[in-house]
């Protein structure tokens, strides 16, 4: 290889993407390869100050192979879903070049990529890191190859729920009807600035065992649960309309109740799966009881829970109730030490709980049931990181540090 | 009152009635007062040698009021469901007397009754004691008043599932269609002698808290769960046909799988209720996992579970597998002491478990999760106890012993 080729500049872009939490749940595919869902879903994008994936993509003529490092460890680039995303982005870039799109930087279209990605939260938090991860990958690849426009359909092919992490705020994934999946896309319902009072708490539950993965879980559910089929066909369409309306009107009780009902119905279809799947453990059940008793005590719906395919609760509430509810959780799930480590993220004021409230809730405390709380809010979609010092890859195209 | 009246002979009858366990579950009423269900159900009657209610009814001109003692404690006879049963039996007796039925002993129709009832199993066992209790009450009252024929419609008005305890063997409760409930009756599908290989184990789980009662639980489910409505209307009718066929053919795998699926679906509808109801605790979840892993190890369905509105499992298996499975339970739920107290009821042979089986199941043991096991089988319906020494009431009409 001539020396001048080796000197070719490596092109490098770093982006971040958010985690999202579904309030109308996605569970079950009608097409496994294209990742087409059996129903539409709706999610809230969490703020990247607390939870995000950061990805650097480098392209260079000097790279011999496509390679990927996830959280400091090199992984197999041959993973079919990774390959889908790489292939689709390159196809789109090629198509744009051939169409003669203005300003397209087609450098490197035939070169190999190095990808490096890290999360700022532990995998143990059980948050759907694949959604943030694939959204970030697709967004960053698109920047590198100069692709613009609709990208959620590509992110979807990495991980279904990743398509919803392509936007900030409140996002719906419209299931679509066509066989090729071209109309199965995410769409922003309202931006992250729409409902500033809405606050989010992630309650990381101590888990006794590793739950069934969502990919195989939803396959089994589609094959065996007749309640899931009914839910997808006859329940979710109406709920999507109701949820969009609740979000638009910032109607917290309506939003909260529908969120809780939909979480419960998703877990009900897991239980109707054969063999049944349990994602809610005794801590989750106690969080559910706590929320209902808290709301009952005040005679209004002030707090809502939702659970994905794991035991951790995501709590929605309004700003004026955050501090009290955090202390309610701390009281009924007394942590090992009462240090500041229990509450991470956005600051939470101290609040003393009244005896009346504690007695009104009337649950037996469950020590160490909740490991910690992440306090966060609704946040924006993927962003480019302009500061080159933040790149995760060094100029030689290898990770700066192996964790 | 003249002395001769006081001398009038007290008429006394003692009967026993069985517990039943539903394999197609009843959950939800379309008429609360008449106790008319939203779907048909099917149960297996458990043997009275292990689990039964015994009831003595006495009638005497000298009694001033109707009175009832349950498990040694006097209870309020004004309870509406008790009153329904008393009223309906007396109405039937009066009708038969007016119709001039041959051999009818109409003595005492205008007299008051004393009722005394005990279970031979602890209420803590969480077995639907109200089914056995109301079945026994109605059956005994009918004997006292000389009423014959169809009685399940009256037992149903005491407690829905009590109608199924009016027969032995395999019993369906046909939901019926009429508003007056006259066609909502139990019917024997096959007698207790039909499938002698079928054996039953009740796994009494250590419970952390008292679950939601079934009466209020099913009301909330009917009001809030859209999955329950779908189940009742569109799933259960087909399952009733399949279950009756599996029982008739003694097809254990078909019977077992449908039993497990229906139990899971019932609990799924509880979770789809708002607020959600949890009857399965972590012990129940572990029993479910154990059964599926045991079956998977052998590549065939040898054992099935079903759970009513509580954490205790009822296990079905065939005679040749009882001993091994009991020891599997004992291994994965190590009791406090390994004494004989862990296994009650029908004798169970000792079996050594192979390492291969233990490793094939591969679960973490959960010490003291199961308090004890009751080993039993399919049994007959209500019976008259001929031995007068077994009466629970003394000749003065008061309980022989107050516990």
UniProtKB/TrEMBL annotation, chains A, B:
Functional pathway: Steroid biosynthesis; cholesterol biosynthesis
Organism domain of life: Eukaryota
Single GO term (MF): ATP binding
EC category name: lyase
Gene Ontology terms: biological process: cholesterol biosynthetic process; isopentenyl diphosphate biosynthetic process, mevalonate pathway
Entry's EC annotation: 4.1.1.33
Gene3D superfamilies reported in the protein's UniProt record: 3.30.230.10, GHMP kinase, C-terminal domain
Keyword Acetylation: no
Catalytic reaction equation(s): (R)-5-diphosphomevalonate + ATP = isopentenyl diphosphate + ADP + phosphate + CO2
UniProt domain Mvd1 C-terminal: residue ranges: 200-385
Gene Ontology CC, one term: cytosol
Keyword set, alphabetical order: ATP-binding, Cholesterol biosynthesis, Cholesterol metabolism, Lipid biosynthesis, Lipid metabolism, Lyase, Nucleotide-binding, Steroid biosynthesis, Steroid metabolism, Sterol biosynthesis, Sterol metabolism
Diphosphomevalonate decarboxylase-like N-terminal domain ranges (all copies): 17-186
Keyword Nucleotide-binding: yes
InterPro entries in UniProt: GHMP_kinase_C_sf, Mev_decarb, Mev_diP_decarb, MVD-like_N, Mvd1_C, Ribosomal_Su5_D2-typ_SF, Ribsml_uS5_D2-typ_fold_subgr
Protein family per UniProt: Belongs to the diphosphomevalonate decarboxylase family.
Role this protein plays: Catalyzes the ATP dependent decarboxylation of (R)-5-diphosphomevalonate to form isopentenyl diphosphate (IPP). Functions in the mevalonate (MVA) pathway leading to isopentenyl diphosphate (IPP), a key precursor for the biosynthesis of isoprenoids and sterol synthesis.
Protein name: Diphosphomevalonate decarboxylase
Lineage: Eukaryota, Metazoa, Chordata, Craniata, Vertebrata
Gene label: mvda
């Amino acid at each position: 290889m001539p020396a001048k080729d080796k000197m070719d500049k490596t092109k490098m872009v770093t982006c971040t993407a958010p985690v999202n939490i579904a309030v109308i749940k996605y569970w079950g595919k009608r097409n496994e390869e294209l990742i087409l869902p059996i129903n539409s879903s709706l999610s809230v994008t969490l703020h990247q100050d607390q939870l995000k994936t950061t990805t650097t993509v480098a392209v260079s003529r000097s790279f011999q192979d496509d390679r990927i490092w996830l959280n400091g460890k090199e992984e197999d680039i041959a993973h079919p879903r990774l390959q889908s995303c790489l292939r689709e982005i390159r196809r789109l870039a090629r198509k744009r070049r051939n169409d003669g799109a203005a300003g397209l930087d087609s450098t490197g279209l035939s070169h190999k990529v190095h990808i490096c990605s890290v999360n700022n939260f532990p995998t143990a938090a059980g948050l759907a890191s694949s959604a943030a991860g694939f959204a970030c990958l697709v967004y960053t690849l698109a920047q590198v190859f100069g692709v613009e426009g609709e990208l959620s359909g590509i992110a979807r092919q990495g991980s279904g729920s990743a398509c919803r992490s392509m936007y900030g705020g409140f996002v719906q994934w419209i299931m679509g009807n066509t066989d090729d999946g071209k109309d199965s896309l995410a769409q922003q319902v309202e931006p992250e600035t729409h409902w500033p009072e809405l606050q989010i708490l992630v309650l990381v539950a101590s888990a006794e065992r590793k739950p069934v993965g969502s990919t195989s879980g939803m396959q089994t559910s589609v094959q065996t649960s007749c309640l899931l089929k009914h839910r997808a066909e006859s329940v979710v369409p109406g709920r999507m309309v109701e949820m969009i309306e609740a979000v638009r009107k910032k109607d917290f009780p309506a939003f909260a109740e529908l969120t809780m009902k939909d979480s419960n119905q998703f877990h009900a279809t897991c239980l109707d799966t054969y063999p049944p799947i349990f994602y809610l453990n005794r801590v989750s059940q106690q969080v559910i009881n706590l929320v209902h008793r808290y709301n009952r005590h005040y005679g209004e719906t002030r707090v809502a829970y939702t659970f994905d395919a794991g035991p951790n609760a995501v709590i929605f509430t309004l700003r004026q109730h955050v501090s009290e509810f955090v202390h309610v959780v701390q009281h009924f799930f007394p942590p090992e030490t009462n240090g500041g480590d229990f509450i991470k993220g956005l600051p939470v004021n101290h609040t003393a709980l009244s005896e009346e409230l504690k007695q009104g809730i009337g649950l037996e405390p469950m020590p160490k049931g909740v490991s910690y709380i992440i306090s966060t809010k609704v946040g924006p979609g993927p962003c480019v990181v302009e500061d080159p010092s933040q790149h995760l890859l060094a100029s030689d195209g290898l990770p700066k540090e192996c964790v």
